[in-house]
Amino acid sequence: MVLVIYLMVKKNIVVVLGPAGCGKTSLVASLGKWIEKNQFMKPGYVNLDPGAVFTPYVADVDIRSYVRAEEVMTRERLGPNGALIRSIEIAMGNLDDIVAKIASLKNPYILVDTPGQMELFLFRDFGVEFVEKMKKYDYVMGIVIFDPTLASRPQDILSLKLLATIAQLRLGIDTIPVVNKGDLGREKLEIMQKLLTSPEQLADEVKRVEGLLGEISEKMIQILEEYRFATRIPIVSSLTWEGLEKLYDMIHEIFCTCGDLT
């Protein structure tokens, strides 16, 4: 009977992804506070990073209840990277219980904070299995964070677009790319946003790249344009809350339409 009640509760599950240092945890916390303040709904928080020392939100479901990377380092005499990989392997054995706890949450929005090292979630079975299991309860989508500090060249912009596409293909979910750290400098961020949303401008920039790298980049732009995902890429800031309303509108839209934001 309890299970039936849980299944009746609509859950919008948002998985936040991105490279180390891009601001995943801060964005999860700020977006959650924005939703609570402006939409009068308290979101649920899920921490899936076994290496996290501190989170600026109170996790309703926390992977650290099952495994902590620091303890694995000491117990199994592993370095930081080995301990994180081993921690995810241990968490995999508890995945059904983790998913069941998330499924029991009654919050309409569930914000999932993934490991700092993106590959632990994206390129290992844990992330794929987690998403597939959560799909049984309701719609799952992703936010892929673009860090402007990693985008000083046109081929860097292309690499970020490829990363978002890989996340979409690997996890089988719709994704919203966002440019984070909107408080760092508006001019650079707006240029980055234009290059991300305009394949023509990006192609013009890539043409200046010499040799085989430039040729490969041009062909990749053509492929991405043919199979492009959402072209509305908001600039957001976890610090100032800039762009969070636009991001929420996109999240709401994608849940309502289950897709196309082009």
Automatic annotation (TrEMBL):
Gene Ontology MF terms in the entry? GTP binding; GTPase activity
Which part of the chain is the AAA+ ATPase domain? 10-177
- Signal sequence range: none
**Domain of life here?**
Archaea
Q: Does the keyword Hydrolase apply?
A: yes
- UniProt keywords, alphabetically: GTP-binding, Hydrolase, Nucleotide-binding
Pfam families, alphabetically? Answer: ATP_bind_1
Q: What InterPro entries does the database record attribute to this sequence?
A: AAA+_ATPase, Gpn, P-loop_NTPase
Q: Which family does it belong to?
A: Belongs to the GPN-loop GTPase family.
**What PANTHER family does the annotation carry?**
GPN-LOOP GTPASE 1 (PTHR21231:SF8), XPA-BINDING PROTEIN 1-RELATED (PTHR21231)
Q: What is the name of this protein? A: AAA+ ATPase domain-containing protein
Phylogenetic classification of the source organism: Archaea, Thermoproteota, Thermoprotei, Thermofilales, Thermofilaceae
